[in-house]
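step=encode ok
step=design start
structure_in=
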């Protein structure tokens, strides 16, 4: 292993707590052959920037709609972890539509399921590094105070 490769190895090793990357870097260190899955992982790992792995909190319905639309356009997987009457949904979001008349966004999920985003809620979108995708959750219900003139 060349000195520059060893320096890069140490830099990556100190930078991450990703067990898969550590395993691959150990293989490189002892000059063991990498398999196809290792190469695919490294290719995807290099294409992710720190700005791509970001958590988003306290998003309005419209901001959530815009962010999910951007993710889907770039092929980023987002899982709907909102809850409905059956519990946590846990399905991949395939598309999202903004229905301006009823003030909701409609999420189309795998398995022909649907869910909605409402104006009265705030949402979180978190990156799950072990699963390599984003998760959509509800932060809290949002109440607007109404002023009363006396």
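sequence_out=
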């Amino acid at each position: 292993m060349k000195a520059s490769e060893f320096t890069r190895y140490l830099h990556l090793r100190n930078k991450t707590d990703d067990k898969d990357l550590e395993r691959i870097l150990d293989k490189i260190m002892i000059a063991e052959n990498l398999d196809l899955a290792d190469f695919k992982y490294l290719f995807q790992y290099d294409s992710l920037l720190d700005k791509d792995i970001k958590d988003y909190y306290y998003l309005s319905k419209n901001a959530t709609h815009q962010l999910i639309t951007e993710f889907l356009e770039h092929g980023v997987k987002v899982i709907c972890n909102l809850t409905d009457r059956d519990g946590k949904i846990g399905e991949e979001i395939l598309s999202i539509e903004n229905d301006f008349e009823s003030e909701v966004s409609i999420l189309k999920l795998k398995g022909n399921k649907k869910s909605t985003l409402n104006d009265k809620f705030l949402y979180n979108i978190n990156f799950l590094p072990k699963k390599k995708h984003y998760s959509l959750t509800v932060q809290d219900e949002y109440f607007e105070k109404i002023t009363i003139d006396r």
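step=design ok
step=annotate ok -> The chain has two domains: 3-47, 56-141.
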